[in-house]
């Protein structure tokens, strides 16, 4: 089963419920065959945008195009877009086979065609032996596969997934997101995946869009958004980031003087980005910060700041330290090895920030 690949484009899409703006001038292009994630916190507008693509919502301004054709006025059942809901929405009184066949029966397909297509869809999701079971006889992961089979059997132009992994436990989520990715690659189907879980988006999507309060913040590959966020929100939402507000007071030669709020003046090297004087946010990731005991010869390639350990978390692969520096806190991650002693709360430490990893973001 290899389905047609189509593009989707949202041009200046705006949607309001009364006086509440839910989507504000959203512009996105999703390429044919792409696995694309819509990422954001609750209330960001990501599910509203997905439902708008399905035809369940209607925007007041802008255009929504599939392969260049505006589908704004097209009702949901004529868009040929498949959607898997968060709760799977399976018919409990029907067998797995009848659930998957439902859309084909509604379309009055011939019985032999239904038999062939349902069989192929169940084989695709690894449930050929489960056709006569009821949904309540299946695990959560199996129910999700039935929902996927029911959606792809109608050969939609596009697959929409609304937080389909949120009802599964952690281990099953990891397994199912890999299966989703493999299924999408097998079908070659343009897929849009809504999630608030950054790890899900980063491990499955070719590209993703981050939304906040209805505004599109940034679009790109996971590594691009992680390494080069355009603002404080993206830096803090995609991964974990240290965000220090302050003012660039001087840029001279190869050095920057940054007056960090609550910390004081830091002399930073120009390692690529050359900021303009004025208010800005200094961003850097916890895993790029070394934590050392006070004393010893510091590595000259890093910016060293003294602090005191406030708290720590042991996370298995790493230990995460929250270190007080002046009136602020900096988070440092330390890879864990057996036998490595941990810093205790109150320990006087020195933090080494990798200069090449600094980013200056608008406030």
Rg value: 25 Å
CATH topological fold name of the largest domain: Rossmann fold
**Helix and strand sequence:** EEEHEEEHHHEHEHEEHHEEEEEEEEEE
| Percent helix | 10-25%
Please state how the strands of the largest beta sheet are arranged side by side: 6-7-8-3-9-10
**3D shape:** elongated
Cα separation of the termini: 48 Å
| Domain tally | 2
The helix-and-strand class reads alpha+beta
Number of helices: 8
Relative strand content: 35-45%
Uncertain regions: pLDDT < 50 for 5+ in a row?
none
Query: What's the CATH first level of the largest domain?
Result: Alpha Beta
CATH superfamily of the largest domain: P-loop containing nucleotide triphosphate hydrolases
The number of strands is 20
Largest sheet: 6 strands, mixed
Average pLDDT metric? 90
Q: From the coordinates shown, what is the CATH architecture of the largest domain?
A: 3-Layer(aba) Sandwich
């Amino acid at each position: 089963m290899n389905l047609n690949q189509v593009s989707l484009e949202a041009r200046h899409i705006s949607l309001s419920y009364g006086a509440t703006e839910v989507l504000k001038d959203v512009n996105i292009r999703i390429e044919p065959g792409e696995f694309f994630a819509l990422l954001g916190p609750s209330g960001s507008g990501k599910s509203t945008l997905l439902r708008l693509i399905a035809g369940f919502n209607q925007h007041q301004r802008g255009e929504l195009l599939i392969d260049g054709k505006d589908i704004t006025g097209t009702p949901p059942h004529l868009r040929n877009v498949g959607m898997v809901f968060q709760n799977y929405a399976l018919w409990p009184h029907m067998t797995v086979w009848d659930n998957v066949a439902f859309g084909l029966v509604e379309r009055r397909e011939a019985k032999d065609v239904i038999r062939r297509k349902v069989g192929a869809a169940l084989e695709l999701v690894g449930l050929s032996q489960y056709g006569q079971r009821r949904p309540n006889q299946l695990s959560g992961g199996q129910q999700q596969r039935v929902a996927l089979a029911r959606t792809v059997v109608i050969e939609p132009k596009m697959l929409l997934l609304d937080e389909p992994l949120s009802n599964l436990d952690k281990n099953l989520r990891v397994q199912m997101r890999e299966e989703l990715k493999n299924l999408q690659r097998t079908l070659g189907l343009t897929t849009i995946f809504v999630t608030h879980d950054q790890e899900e988006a980063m491990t499955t999507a070719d590209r993703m869009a981050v939304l906040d309060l209805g505004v599109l913040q940034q679009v790109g590959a996971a590594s691009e958004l992680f390494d080069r966020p355009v603002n404080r929100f993206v830096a803090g939402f995609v991964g974990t980031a240290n965000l220090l507000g302050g003012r660039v007071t001087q840029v001279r030669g190869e050095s920057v003087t940054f007056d960090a709020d609550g910390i004081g003046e830091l002399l930073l090297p120009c390692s690529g980005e050359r900021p303009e004087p004025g208010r800005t946010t200094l961003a850097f990731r916890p895993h790029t910060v070394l934590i050392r005991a006070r004393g010893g010869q510091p590595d000259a390639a890093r910016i060293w700041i003294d602090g005191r350990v406030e708290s720590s978390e042991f996370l298995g692969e790493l230990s995460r330290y929250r270190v007080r520096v002046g009136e602020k806190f900096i988070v440092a991650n330390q890879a864990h090895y057996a036998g490595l002693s941990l810093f205790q709360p109150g320990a006087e430490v020195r933090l080494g920030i990798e200069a090449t990893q600094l980013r200056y973001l608008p406030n």
